[in-house]
Design brief:
20% strand, globular, alpha/beta, 34% helix, five-stranded parallel β-sheet, Rossmann fold
Length: 138
């Protein structure tokens, strides 16, 4: 069975409660159940952390174990050269996902140049688009 890993960064554990006018009212765990039902032919694993180094560790561990990674580095998108370096260094395709498009200062991504695809502003459905891309287009 093909496997895909979803990694969510800081504060995304608060989805469903955090700024519902921007992020909606569904928790990621509830949406994950939707994804797993939608893509029954693959195994979707999930990891969320608020810590930059943990994202890097998980990315490095995923290399060779998964067909691809869906990564929402959240605020680290705009600050972490270390995560960008990791995405560039591993041999696994990474799709960068962002639920919303927000302030101008959040438009800079250190990760995007190394991702195989970037999806933003599609709400939680951006994750579905990313998974679909990984299983169909790669």
């Amino acid at each position: 069975m093909k496997k895909i890993l979803i990694i969510n960064g800081p504060n995304l554990n608060l989805l469903g409660r955090r700024e519902p006018e921007i992020y909606g009212t569904m928790s990621f765990e509830d949406y994950l159940a939707v994804l797993r039902h939608r893509f029954q032919e693959i195994q979707i694993d999930y990891y969320q952390t608020n810590h930059e180094g943990s994202i890097i560790d998980k990315l490095q561990e995923s290399d060779g174990k998964y067909k691809g990674v869906v990564l929402n580095p959240a605020a680290y998108t705009h600050t972490s050269i270390a995560i960008a370096d990791c995405v560039a260094a591993i041999d696994i395709p990474v799709v960068e996902v962002h639920i919303s498009e927000r302030e101008k200062f959040r438009q800079i991504s250190y990760v995007s140049p190394f991702a195989v695809k970037v999806i933003k502003g599609q709400g939680l459905e951006g994750y579905s688009q990313a998974v679909s891309f990984l299983i169909k287009d790669l």
